[in-house]
Amino acid sequence: MICNRCLLYLERGLDKKTRTLLYAYRDKEEPSIRALVAHSGLSQYHVREALMTLRGAGLVWGDYFYTLSPNGQRLIELLSTADRPEPSESLCNDCLREIAELLPNDVYPILAELTRKHYRTTQQLVAALNVSSYKLREYAFLLRGAGLIRVDRNRIYRLTGTGRYLGLMLQQQPVAVPA
Ligand SMILES: [Zn+2]
Q: How many angstroms is it from 140 CA to the middle of ligand 1?
């Protein structure tokens, strides 16, 4: 369970489109993709990108990643509460571990590569990790939602402070990630 302060921290890190999508859940816990498109005013393409980001933050889950997880439901409730706590400054260790365990195994090589090399272009990551640029883009949304990487306009990938911390932690003691 992600703690309330870390949920609010994750929400603050979301980009505008993803936040718009999250707010489209306010009235309904399990809308269809079509309903999300209608409620958010985003294109289906942007809805899918935003859902990947929310999945990275552990807020949605399920086969097609558009059902709010218990964490996501609690965040929606928190956002409609007037006296909610201040967001945390960064993810606490327990929440960071939970977020890391929710990520698919495929994203770990990206974290490891960025821990070693500090920054990489799309082409460098595609070449080093033998992954398609389509998949890399998908993983980047997950990792951004988790607050672990930044990707700038020139498609340069870097770890955030939290990502660097997790990367170093994993080098020392790999997380037992469920398959
Ligand atoms: Zn926490």
A: 22
Render pLDDT for 132-141 as a digit per residue (tens, 0 to 9): 999 999 999 9
Domain identity same for 119 and 162: yes
Query: Is there a single domain that holds both residue 13 and residue 69?
Result: yes
Range of the domain at 133: 93-172
Domain count, the chain: 2
User: How distant, in Å, are the alpha carbons of 10, 90, 93, 96, 108 from that of 162?
Assistant: 12, 7, 10, 8, 14
Distance 8 CA to ligand 1 centre (A): 10
Residues 6+ apart with CB under 8 A from 63: none
Q: Confirm if 147 and 160 have CB atoms less than 8 A apart.
A: yes
Cα–Cα distance, 37 to 1 (Å, whole number): 28
* Protein residues placing their CB within 5 Å of the ion ligand 1: 3, 6, 92, 95
- To the question of pTM greater than 0.85 for the whole model, the response is yes
The verdict on 55 and 114 lying in the same domain is no
Question: Domain check: are 102 and 139 in the same one?
Answer: yes
67-89: average pLDDT: 94
30 pLDDT above the threshold of 80: no
